[in-house]
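Subject: for your reference before the review

Hello V.,

The reviewers asked for a structural picture of the protein, and I figured it would be easier to keep everything in one thread rather than splitting it across files. Below is the amino acid sequence we used in the manuscript, unchanged from the supplementary table.
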Amino acid sequence: QLQLVESGGGLVQPGGSLRLSCAASGVALDYYAVGWFRQAPGKEREGVSCISSAGDFMDHIESVKGRFTISRDNAKNTVYLEMNSLKPEDTAVYYCAAEWGPYVPTICLAGNSMNVWGKGTHVTVSS
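And here is what came back from the structure prediction:
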């Protein structure tokens, strides 16, 4: 059974960087598209970035384009989210999730088709 564990969150100053990791166990991640999602206090969950199973397609929401980069290393069964130029509005709990099936960016970012979710890692951007 596929399980996902996020790590790498923490407190960072505005303008700083963090790299989140989503480590999979139980099943090879090779055939799953993976997305990163976030939920800030009092707000709806938001899809941030998605990557296809082979890593050949990547998509980001407009507010993080140019700042966040999603990548994956299937040999390590891990997906990453590199976050640069962080802003206070990036503060949230970040979750990774995986879905089996063909990669459709809008469907991935919506998050409703995800088969497995991690428990999340906290990111706080504050001075």
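For the response letter, the relevant points are probably these. The CA atoms of residues 13 and 127 lie 5 Å apart. The longest strand covers residues 92-100.

Happy to draft the paragraph if you're swamped.

O.
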